[in-house]
Prior knowledge:
Elements: H1 3-11, E1 16-20, H2 26-35, E2 39-43, H3 47-54, H4 65-73, E3 77-80, E4 91-94, H5 109-118, E5 127-130, H6 138-148, E6 159-162
Parallel strand pairs: 1-2, 1-4, 2-3, 4-5, 5-6
Helix pairs in contact: 5-6
Amino acid sequence: MSKTQALERLHDRSGVVGIIGLGYVGLPLAVAFAEAGYRVIGLDLDTRKVDALNRGESYIPDIPTAQVAPLTQSGKLSATDDYGALREVDAVSICVPTPLLKTKDPDMSYVNSAVESLVQVVHAGMLIVLESTTYPGTTNEIVIPKLTAGGLTPGEDIFIGFSPERIDPGNKTYGVRN
């Protein structure tokens, strides 16, 4: 897929969005994209989250089931634990946890695992955005080298960026949209 085709699919909302990690950041983001008209495939290794979401049930207090149910019923939002499903997505947001280690450094194992699994399905035209809370340089040091090892060129074949997480769980004033 060319850069122009990829941009057109995202602009006209015919593109498919993938969200890796359906926790307190990923689920609200998945719901926001689905409500905006995109078809969203959420991926989480916790099958309880996947099963609940596919039943139209929320497990995050900030996202009511009444908001999730119509999205799953309409086919705008689905969940899986299989990275193979991301072969069809045009854009992916990585929203996996980065808990602090005893040394106060982020545990990058979840990011590493997500990116290593994503390598198996990355394709030309794909936009990949790291949203997990992490230290400056993670995108350049970890994400880009792994996703381009197969020969894809950033900015030409694939598009890679970082967007700092914007979710403040429980905050009724500021959410994913503002």
